[in-house]
Amino acid sequence: MASNIPGIGILYSLIAGYHWDKAGDKERAATNLQNAATNTVAVAAINAIARSIPSDKSKSTSAINKLEVKAPYGVARQANTLEALAARQAVAEGAQIYRAGQFGVQQGSAGQFWSLNNPLSTRNYSNVSGMPTSASPEWIMAGTVRPGASFVTRGSPGLGSNLGGAMEVVVPADAVRVNWFHTIGK
Amino acid sequence: MTEQKDERLSVIELCNYLNSLAALLDSKGLNELAHRINEASKFASGSPTELFGESKIALMEVRSNVQLDFSESELFKLSLVINQIESEFRRIGGG
Q1: Chain B residues with CB inside 8 Å of A71's CB?
Q2: A41 touches A6 (CB < 8 A)
Q3: Contact criterion met (CB below 8 Å) for B68 and B31
Q4: Range 5-64 of B in CB contact (< 8 A) with A
Q5: Which range marks the domain in which residue B38 is found?
Q6: Is the CB of residue A83 less than 8 Å away from at least one CB of chain B?
Q7: Where are the domains of chain A?
Q8: What is the predicted pLDDT for the residue at A66?
Q9: Which of A51, A100, A151, B86: disulfide with A171, CB 3.0–4.6 Å?
Q10: Residue A5 reports pLDDT greater than 50
Q11: Residue A167 near residue A81 (C-beta atoms within 8 A)
């Protein structure tokens, strides 16, 4: 997917060549990068990075790959791929995220792992998200990350055999405002 | 299994292994552990990360309880899958 997006070479060189830890503050870092960018795709992704830098100058300025969320299985870190940064920007701007599962198995709205794909409208959702078709969900919910809540975006595990790898959003518990919840009849 | 040519583990491969492991445990009369593995496999209906995370916990539980019941090759495969799960988490940037 990423290779089809114009300007990816420019973006990667900008990300790779920029030392966030040495940046003075959020505004200067964002301005420097925006001046260097020469197309809208790169600017959009860079805006997502700039938005992620804490504005509290008393703290050390964090690199994009230092953004992390404590999760049940360890610490989830922000990916710095173009796709992950675009996903981050979309979530920060209020994109709806989705979660599916079976009753008695998962944590429901307190769950920390969400998808950007709507299972109800995504063809072959189980393959896109890496789920086997035999494990059909009994419920689906959608929500948005609460304003100001921390989150990271990254590829999900299970990329082997070209399965899975869809973007996932990892949030702290209860960081998502649920918009709707549907049960799925069998 | 992708075996050792690379250390990748897909969701489908993990689910297939969980199913075969549950059957193996049942065949050895280790029904509680088989049930534990089946419960972990249900996470496949949701997030792949949860499936991998819950599977790792269940597989480690199995490994610590089957030292006398599993053959060397069965234990090797069990440990291999646990390592592959850990490898997948490293690839995506944490658990």
Answers
A1: 49, 94-95
A2: yes
A3: no
A4: 6, 8-15, 39, 41-53, 56
A5: 11-92
A6: no
A7: 2-63, 67-183
A8: 72
A9: A151
A10: no
A11: no
Q: Which residues of B fall within a CB distance of 8 Å from A154? A: 92-93
- Closest chain A residue to B95, measured at CA: A74
Give the closest-approach CA distance of B4 to chain A in angstroms. 13
Domain-located, residue B62: yes
**pLDDT higher at A79 or A59:** A79
Angstroms from A25 CA to nearest CA on chain B? 26
Residue B83: predicted pLDDT: 95
pLDDT at residue number A17: 38
Residue A19 has pLDDT above 70, yes or no: no
B82 in a domain, yes or no? yes
A138–B48 C-beta distance less than 8 A: no
Judged by DSSP in three states, A180 sits in strand
pLDDT at residue B84 in the model: 93
Does residue B87 lie within any of the structural domains? yes
User: Is B86 or A118 the better-scoring residue by pLDDT?
Assistant: B86
Taking contacts as CB-CB distances below 8 angstroms, the residues of chain B near A115 are: 47
Residue A122 region by backbone torsions, left for phi larger than 0, else alpha for psi between -120 and 50, else beta? beta
**Do B14 and A115 lie within an 8 Å CB cutoff?**
no
- Closest C-alpha to A84, from B91, B46, B40, B70: B91
Counting the structural domains of chain B, the total is: 1
